[in-house]
Structure formats: C-alpha cells, structure tokens
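Many introductory courses stop at the sequence. We go one step further.
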Amino acid sequence: MPKYRAEPVVIEAVQFKGTGESCSEVDALFGGRHDPNVCIWKSCTYDGGFIQTLEGKMEFGKGDYIIKGT
C-alpha cells in the first residue's frame, strides 16, 4: 500500500486574554471588522464568547487560542 505525506498547514491564531485589546485581536483575525459569526460575551470583564463554524457553535474563554485556517 502506498504512503503519502501531508504538508504542514500555516494558520493564523490569537490567544483570547479577556481584555478589550484581546477582543480587537479576535476581530482583526476575521478581517478587522465585527463578524456576525463571532460573539464576545461582555460583563464586568470579557469572559469569553463563541464562533459559529461549519461544525457548529464553538465556545471560547480566557486563555483559549482562536485559530483561522483549514
């Protein structure tokens, strides 16, 4: 049986730190505008949010990495 090697894929990523600056980085990852598929929960601090993907709603919180790629 033949074997194949898959090439590594380059992705973009930011870590959500729960700050206003971190929220801006998430927005910038998706084209520098507020994407309707990304929602960041806002309370006294930025607790987390969710991103709507092809696989469904994915939640994220402080410390999580948000990646954009294949």
